[in-house]
Amino acid sequence: MNQGWANVDGNGHHWPGQPGMPPAFYGMPADPLVSPDYAGWWQRGIALAKQVWKPSLILHAIVIVPTLALTVPANTMFTAESATVQEALRNGGGLPPMNGYLRAMALLMAAFLVSGLLSTIATAVTVRLVVAAATGQPVSLPTALREGVRRVPALIGWGILAGLLALGAVLACILPIVYVAAAVMVLPVVVTLERGSGIGRCFSLFHADLGTSVARIATLFGIGTVAALALGLVGIVLEAGISGTAGVVGSTVANGMYALAAGLVLPPLLVTAYADMRSRREPFSTAYLAPRPV
């Protein structure tokens, strides 16, 4: 398959000959983002998480305040209105007036939309923080914020398309949605770092080396699944042990704390997964992401 190809990079991968390509554009064993194996990927991701944790913590702490300010009252109101409707149905009185329930649902949906927008901004900014750390630039939250926010409209647009694609996969059956979700997991990194790229690029990177892609993405899926199960258990315990409004508030705050922790750990692992996937497809090293001289 690789016959006639030249230039073996530091990971042992063969790429088409590129006359004049500087050696720095092929990932070397010490590359901050590109790793030769699974252990290297994990170590690089955690090392970068440690480098950016302070500005990332500040960013996600800022994001979580308006998120909780919106979702706590919205979730509390919706839960109360849902309980009213269920109680009326149990008593055989038919549907009660639905104005309050519909208002609560609209408020909850609005809260989720705003929370999603804030999460999108935080993800793009964290990606820029990780890249700054990897390329030896100052890890500056204001700089990362300026660079990340510019990509938010593109992230929203591609995110909507990815959602529609996922919906189509769900209607097909379980296996396609797993495949689509795995392939587009690096979409936030692709859109943030590569102008004009989107869903098609994600699938190209995912298929370049399925072993590498599946190992990284499955780990991220696993972390998210275990965390979601633990969070769900905490929510059930809180709502059962602390009934009423306090239980709903406690469960919503627990969700916010999970989002905060996930924002610190997962983006660096996602950026390094993207780097590994890209390096298996084309000449790539961290040098590609370094700012161009002015």
From TrEMBL:
<keyword id="KW-0472">Membrane</keyword>
<keyword id="KW-1133">Transmembrane helix</keyword>
<feature type="transmembrane region" description="Helical">
    <location>
        <begin position="214"/>
        <end position="237"/>
    </location>
</feature>
<feature type="transmembrane region" description="Helical">
    <location>
        <begin position="257"/>
        <end position="275"/>
    </location>
</feature>
<feature type="transmembrane region" description="Helical">
    <location>
        <begin position="57"/>
        <end position="80"/>
    </location>
</feature>
<keyword id="KW-0812">Transmembrane</keyword>
<feature type="transmembrane region" description="Helical">
    <location>
        <begin position="177"/>
        <end position="193"/>
    </location>
</feature>
<feature type="transmembrane region" description="Helical">
    <location>
        <begin position="152"/>
        <end position="171"/>
    </location>
</feature>
<feature type="transmembrane region" description="Helical">
    <location>
        <begin position="100"/>
        <end position="131"/>
    </location>
</feature>
<protein>
    <recommendedName>
        <fullName>Glycerophosphoryl diester phosphodiesterase membrane domain-containing protein</fullName>
    </recommendedName>
</protein>
